[in-house]
Each structure stands twice: as C-alpha cells, then as structure tokens.
Predict the 3D structure of the following.
Amino acid sequence: PEIDAFLSVPESAAAAIVTGVNSTGRIPGEDVLIATYIDGRFAAWSSPSITALDFQPKDFGRRLFESFWEHISAPEKNLKSTFVEESAVPLVVRDSTKLGLSSSSGR
C-alpha cells in the first residue's frame, strides 16, 4: 500500500516531507496528509501550511517555573516533589490535512 500520511517530530522535517511528496507527483494535503508535533513559523507559513499540535511551550514553561519557584521559596509547605499537569493540546488544522485524502485515491 502507498503511504498516505506523515507525522514529523521536528517541524523542519515537514519541509523535507513536502518536497519528497511533491517530487513523486502526489499532492500534499490531498494525496498525502502531513502533520507535525511542533507548531511554529514553518508550519504556519509553508506551502501548504502544515497541521500541527500546539503544545504551547512558553505557557507550560511559565507554569513549570512557577511551581519550581514555589518549591524553593517555601520548603516549609512540604509540597509534592512531582509536578504533574494535564492539559488539552490543541490541534491546529491547516492545508496539509484539511482536504483529507482525495476521492481518487479510493480510500
């Protein structure tokens, strides 16, 4: 069977995937779906734009630092030594997956 989707971990790998898909004559976002774990400038501005997970690392880093600061600032509170946080990770749907697989692919 033909590959019909790619999920890249580094955002920059999506560029190579788009180039590779284009070189086969297939159309990214129609014949092959492409997504990345990291939402950044490349994902947003590439052609086609790439669907991505938005882990919001700046917000998470801020919350992690606040928890760390609380631990070192007030050891008498006897806070838990493990930091656990659950949060939804938004999926930013863009052109690389918006159309799904084309009807001509037979899937």
Q: What stands out?
A: The chain has a mean pLDDT of 85. The helical segments are 13-23, 41-45, 57-73, 95-98.
